[in-house]
Design brief:
The chain is of the alpha/beta class. It has one domain: Dihydrofolate Reductase, subunit A, CATH 3.40.430. Helix content is 23%, strand content 29%. The chain has four helices and eight strands. It has an eight-stranded mixed sheet with strand order 4-3-2-5-1-6-8-7. It starts with a strand and ends in an 8-residue tail after the last strand. The relative contact order is 0.25.
């Protein structure tokens, strides 16, 4: 199963000013790009904080929220809360017939999947903003070796960069 990490970042590499910062700072073209990739995959994986920032499941795809809170229950058909490990979750999705999934943060969830070497591709859309501080792609030090696959201009000022992750993630010392 192919796992794509898909995140919007600022020029200084931030995904938001803090964990509650709603991603309304990207261009409309970025939102269309995100919807296209996530709907094609059919499933999006995120953490509780990211989901709570959005407030509702994204339509037209299965939304899976990783949480440590067993009390969280879904009122929507396309939303599932789970405490499965990243590996077990992807295994279940593959058994359900999915061939790819999109990982959409936040940093703690991204780190869990990176630590298990489950991310196959990283797509970042870079917006022409600088926050100077804020949230990063990962919550801990991560080392991943990647190979540039594609660079596309999206909209007026946005760049989408796609990398293939090599299977030689190196643990930091």
């Amino acid at each position: 199963m192919k796992l794509i990490l898909l995140m919007a970042i600022t020029l200084d590499g931030k995904t938001g000013k803090d964990s509650e910062h709603f991603v309304d700072w990207t261009e409309q073209e970025d939102k269309k790009f995100f919807v296209g990739i996530t709907k094609k995959a059919g499933v999006i994986i995120m953490g509780s904080k990211t989901f709570d920032t959005i407030g509702k499941p994204l339509p037209g795809r299965k939304n899976i929220i990783l949480t440590r809170n067993p009390q969280r229950k879904s009122q929507w058909d396309n939303l599932i809360f789970t405490d499965k490990t990243p590996f077990d979750l992807l295994e279940c999705l593959e058994k359900e017939g999915f061939s790819e999934a999109v990982l959409a943060g936040g940093p703690t969830i991204n780190t869990l999947f990176a630590r298990e070497r489950l991310i196959d591709e990283v797509i970042v859309t870079v917006s022409p903003l600088i926050f100077g501080y804020g949230t990063s792609l990962f919550s801990e030090e991560i080392a991943m070796e990647m190979e540039l696959k594609d660079v596309q201009r999206r909209g007026r000022d946005l760049v989408a960069i796609t990398y293939t992750v090599k299977n030689t993630m190196v643990e930091s010392v």
